[in-house]
């Protein structure tokens, strides 16, 4: 098994769409998909995986995850929303993503929010989450190694991988379940639009 820190470095966690990456002009759909493919290419699990497709964007628009597009061009605010959707859909259902973004879309449409400022906060928290993730990986790895030291087996590398995978999945599931509970609370909140 590769060293864990090598695998973490291959994940492309630092790759994000920043405000500097988003042009100050509206983009056509092909330009949007190309921007995301170029920025997140390193995060792909394999070459066949698509980061963002025209169909995905159309589905986001149909599901009203984005406020209406004008003249088939996507504004800076649309790109920020698509970036948020990209992050959220990794763990949440599309219907949950809609719940999370409904009020945000309303505020954007009615100019009640500076989306760029909010996005900068999102990116700062993203960077802190990477630091926390790396620290937590060290803790999980240490815990797994302690358990492995108790085992007497010829296939110790396999057992180490198995325990590491199960620990990572358990941690991931806990975060996802908490996020889903927060979405459920959003559903119960009175509509403040």
UniProtKB/TrEMBL annotation:
Question: Which domain of life does this protein belong to?
Answer: Bacteria
**What protein name is recorded for this chain?**
DUF1836 domain-containing protein
Source species: Aquibacillus rhizosphaerae
Q: What is the lineage of its organism?
A: Bacteria, Bacillati, Bacillota, Bacilli, Bacillales
């Amino acid at each position: 098994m590769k060293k864990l820190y090598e695998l973490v470095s291959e994940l492309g966690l630092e790759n994000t769409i920043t405000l500097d990456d988003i042009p100050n002009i509206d983009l056509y759909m092909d330009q949007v998909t190309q921007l995301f493919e170029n920025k997140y290419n390193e995060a792909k699990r394999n070459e066949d995986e698509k980061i963002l497709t025209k169909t995905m964007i159309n589905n986001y628009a149909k599901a009203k995850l984005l406020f209406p597009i004008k003249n088939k061009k996507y504004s800076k605010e649309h790109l920020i929303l698509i970036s948020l959707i990209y992050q959220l859909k990794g763990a949440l259902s599309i219907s949950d993503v809609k719940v999370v973004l409904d009020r945000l879309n309303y505020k954007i449409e009615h100019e009640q929010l500076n989306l760029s400022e909010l996005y900068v906060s999102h990116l700062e928290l993203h960077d802190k989450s990477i630091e926390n993730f790396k620290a937590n990986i060290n803790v999980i790895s240490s815990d797994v190694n302690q358990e492995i030291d108790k085992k007497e087996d010829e296939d110790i590398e396999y057992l180490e991988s198995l325990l590491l995978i199960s620990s990572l999945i358990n941690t991931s599931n806990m975060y996802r379940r908490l996020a889903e509970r927060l979405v459920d609370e959003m559903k119960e909140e009175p509509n403040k639009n």
